[in-house]
Batch of 2 targets.
Target 1
Amino acid sequence: MNKTISKHLSTCSYCGVGCGIEVTKDAKGAIAVKGDEQYPVNKGMLCSKGMNLNYVVQNTDDRILYPQMRWSKSHPLERVDWDTALTRASAVFRSLIQQYGPDSVGMYVSGQCLTEEYYIANKLTKGFFGTNNIDTNSRLCMSSAVVGYKKTIGDDTVPICYDDIELADCFLITGANPAWCHPILFRRIEKHKELNPDVKIIVVDPRKTQTCSSADLHLQINPGTDTMLHHAIGRALIESGNIDLAFIENHLNGFEAYKEKVLSLTMESYAQACGLSVEDILSAASMIGDAKGFLSMWTMGLNQSAKGTDKNLSLIALNLITGHIGKPGAGPFSLTGQPNAMGGREVGGMANLLAAHRDLLNPEHRQEVADFWGVDQISPKPGYTATEMFEALDRGDMKAVWIVCTNPMVSLPDSNLVERALKKARFVIVQDISYKSDTVALADLVLPAAGWLEKEGTMTNSERRISYLPKVLNAPGEALPDLDIFLRFAQKMGYHGFDFKDTEAVFLEHVKLTEGTNIEISGLDYQTLKEKRSVQWPYTNGKQQERLFTDKRFYTPDGKANIFPAAATNELEKLTPDFPLVLTTGRIRDQWHTMTRTGKVNRLNTHIDKPFLEIHPSDAEVRNIKDGDVVEISSKRGTVRVHAQLTDKIKEGVVFLPMHWGKILQHDLARTNNLTDRLLDPISKEPDFKYSAVEVVRY
Ligand code: SF4
């Protein structure tokens, strides 16, 4: 056995839980991983994905090892050196910007990028290309929650800390399956309930997921009716007097309009719309009303919706009318999907944001950032968001896109449009670690990137905890850290302000921009992060803030929180006789996103090894479908062909497909997003992956 020669502390690169990992490296360079017992998030625990990260790192068979370029669409990709690759990239971007204007180009980045990479990608695009066409796959994940927080508590900030889990006595887990998708947080909830059996867990989901195994109450709701349910619970809380009148009086705006809205329908009407019983809704309301610490937790089931903003507003209202915020064990807690979706937004990593949560539409904020970067101005025009960007490429309004660390050919809605858009684009750069990314096939320029442990930088998890990730290994072949690629490109473009001596210098520039904002981290540097292991923002005078709003002053102009009479109408894709079933999509336990990393770990493929369709036995029976049959699922946009899995854990009239498989890992017809719609929430611009009208037939 080889002796350990070095030990390093890092953070898991998969989900927003942000577990601490201890990495050991032996004399032959082989690494082993285990949960960091001292880390406050996971206290030594790791889920199946995290504990197999070493196999992902060590198996480099799929890695992109050198830049590749095609000289025209009809030429094959051929190996080139970095100088040729970046000279071409800069020449094309410069020429397109001159000929068609800055909005003809854009970047599509990822919640997997490190904060420093995100910062520089934003500086390049917004400061120097002169366009706000930079968006991220976090748009598919969190943007409805961002709008919910901004409208209610005044900023995009998670008010709770993870330690509130052990202090809560009622959990409302809605639109989320944390048992599979945020496993370590769910382990903490399970353990808390084991030790305190009176703790109540309410789960809201059209599917009976693994999370329901710990639930006191499962509300198997009709898809798309979440706002109705929230209003029904709000009504029941008001009618039973289980609201915090002092909080409402002193710290809340909008209660009367909200009250009028939720009282406008009867409990019976709400129950019928939601497909639930009045008793179950009242039972949920009474668990919440009796709680000393009420924690609402949600993720994609609410966010990924054409009504995502309303669903968020109506849920957060339940915490606000009961005063369950800013106190132990209480608050609205959106579970972040990706490991650094928070860090990305901290540096302004969306088409409508600026650094340190500044607002793109605010002229003063734009000027502050422009002055800081030494440029004349930031464009006042919001950029294309994720889905809009590919629509713009399809229309020809955008000519070039630089895709970093994400696989939109599989993950964006209406994949067939995305594929067509990438074929039509003049120039597509794909910067990735793996050939398993389907999008690589349509690139004009492929740039090999370094992966986890092969570069340093920082990430922020979903309790605002910033951690430092060290470089432990050299990247294979000629792969470079994303940051180095951006900085080399900026030099080729002749831009000033990109001459950083190291990665920390980029971090410190970001820190400077946070001064005076709600997310201030003044004084934070790599040495402090290494010593403290991690800190939660805001961090000033050497002190972090774990739980926010303990003084009940919110980040709004008058310091009060806001609630809204959110519309409960369900303006989603209509079911028709041709497409009478609702398709909802999601994740499985052992896979991550489009499987470019987890898909190459044998033991992670043993849990579920192929795509499948969950369908209720009665929906299957009328279609003459048996368990295991190959079925064809169709929507107005495309088709998918997979094996049927009959289960009464899914509500009648609803079918479920996992979102992971794409062309490369299966075949053309396993790509779930062939079916989904590009319908967006009008404010958050988050697409709706949870409600598509489909039909299923035996193939
Ligand atoms: Fe990684 Fe998330 Fe699993 Fe923790 S819960 S080990 S962060 S995938």
Target 2
Amino acid sequence: MSSNDFPPLKNDLILRACRGEPIERVPIWIMRQAGRYLPEYKAISAQHPFFEVCRTPTLACEVTLQPVRRYDLDAAIIFSDILVIPQALGMDVEMVPNEGPCFPQPLKVPEDLNTKIDRTRKASIELKYVYEAITLTRRTLDGQCPLIGFSGAPWTLMSYMIEGKASTTMSKAKRWLYSYENESHDLLNLLANFIIDHLVEQISAGAQLVQLFESHCACLTPDLFNRFSLPYLCQIAKGVRDELSKRQISSVPIIVFAKDAHFGLQDLAKSGLFDVISLDWTITSTNIDLLRKENSTLTLQGNLDPCALYASKENLEKFVRRMLEIFGTKRYIANLGHGIYPDISVDNVKWFIDAVHLISKEMNDN
Ligand code: CP3
């Protein structure tokens, strides 16, 4: 698919922010913007199990569009999950309501790589439903705003495949890094190659940007990050670009979100492989200044604390203003520092989005 196969884009703010071009107001989207804080999402999820929504293009399209119908958002993100990859590789994943993901048979020992994972599986076949959902959604969006595709990153997926569910210490998965180093690299490499295919297929189906979620860096030491996360993030960005050029498909901006990897941000930026780095709420303004100073062609995304959406409108406006002052209005995409929580008020979300637009426009006009 090429852009000629889709309706023309009416709002390209986010793409301009990625290229460092002038923008009249700062673009904004919200991680997990399609989700349980929206009554219309809850109505659908009351009738359909989570992975059924992911696997049914008409439902995934509907849920993707819900937040962009309600709010003045500058991007849509396709409704799916990072865990569709372990599923596609042959592992069972259940989504337990109000608890989260659960793997009934997680990886326990390196031999499981030969019995619980099917290396012959191809993203283009197993995850066809994601690509169909993307094409349908981009058509239905009718150019209202760009559509983001995404994938989990290798370390985050590996940690779920071993832990089997959420974990605060990740000690089972980290045990692999320390005691089965070669097998860990084997698994991470297998995942990286699968992810490259998954992202290329999403772009080929119509995704106009892609984001890589490396959500589980908080448990890594800087050394573990440098050995088991950073090289694979870079391998993916490079692999996606090479494959796109081989297939003569235009490249799209790549966003990387390495949550809690404050120690790795300069290296990610210096790699020159990412258009956008997404920041969590722990990053200081000094670090933001440094990233800006040393990487003039990098766009930053983030980083309001999701809990700031519990604040009064008056205080939320102050937080937004401060965030815009720190990041500036150029090469910047406003977002939260992680996904939105289910008990956030729909009115405060509207206020957040509108405040980013109003205040950044006012700053640009002055
Ligand atoms: O709107 C969007 O952002 C697009 C859809 C999206 C979902 N998951 C839908 C979802 C995206 C981008 C994700 C990414 C994802 N999934 C990540 C990376 C981002 C992050 O939060 O760090 C991770 C770690 C997952 C794995 C996952 N999926 C967890 C831990 C959970 C349970 C916890 C939670 O937040 O609900 C899910 C379920 C999930 N994925 C829901 C949604 C809307 C809630 C399911 C429901 O109960 O309806």
